[in-house]
Amino acid sequence: QVQLVESGGGLVQPGGSLRLSCAASGNIFAIYSMGWYRQAPGKQRELVASITGTSSTNYADSVKGRFTISRDNAKNTVYLQMNGLKPEDTGVYYCNGHIEMATGTGGYYWGQGTQVTVSS
């Protein structure tokens, strides 16, 4: 069993910063790519940023230059540093991980989500 637990969401004023964390736990053998997605009310879930096992990164055009994704392999944790937040960044942020378990099985796993609200 694999669990992804996000933290770090909250209410912030426009222009502010937040740092999200997502920790994976369980009988993990390897974590390959990890990513952050967000879903605004009434909209589809979209990819915000992703990072491969070798730390290559990819960002949505809307967050390039403002958000930074990183990972700590020793802690099985991925981070999303969000600077220069805008009201349109508001939504529920979900962590996703491509994980192989020690049993040899695996797949893509989701966290429960953390709310980010950007408002004055």
Short summary of the structure?
This protein has 120 residues and is mainly β. It has strands at 2-7, 10-12, 18-26, 28-39, 46-51, 57-59, 67-72, 77-82, 91-101, 106-110, 114-118.
Report on the architecture of this protein.
With about 120 residues, the protein is mostly beta strands. The protein contains no helices and 11 strands. It has strands at about 1-5, 10, 20-25, 30-40, 45-50, 55-60, 65-70, 75-80, 90-100, 105-110, 115-120. The strands form 2 sheets. Strands 2, 4, 5, 6, 9, 10 and 11 form a 7-stranded mixed β-sheet that branches. Strands 1-3-8-7 form a 4-stranded antiparallel β-sheet, with no helix packed on it. Strand 9 and strand 10 (about 105-110) form a beta hairpin. It is elongated, with a radius of gyration of 14 Å. The termini are far apart.
The span between the termini is 40 Å
Shape, principal axes of CA atoms = elongated
**Helix/strand class:** mainly beta
Overall mean pLDDT stands at 96
**Strand percentage, roughly?**
over 45%
- Helical segment count: 0
> Secondary-structure element order, as H and E?
EEEEEEEEEEE
Count of beta strands: 11
| Largest sheet geometry | 7 strands, mixed
Are there runs of 5+ residues with pLDDT below 50, and where? none
Q: Which bin fits the share of residues in helices?
A: under 10%
Radius of gyration: 14 Å
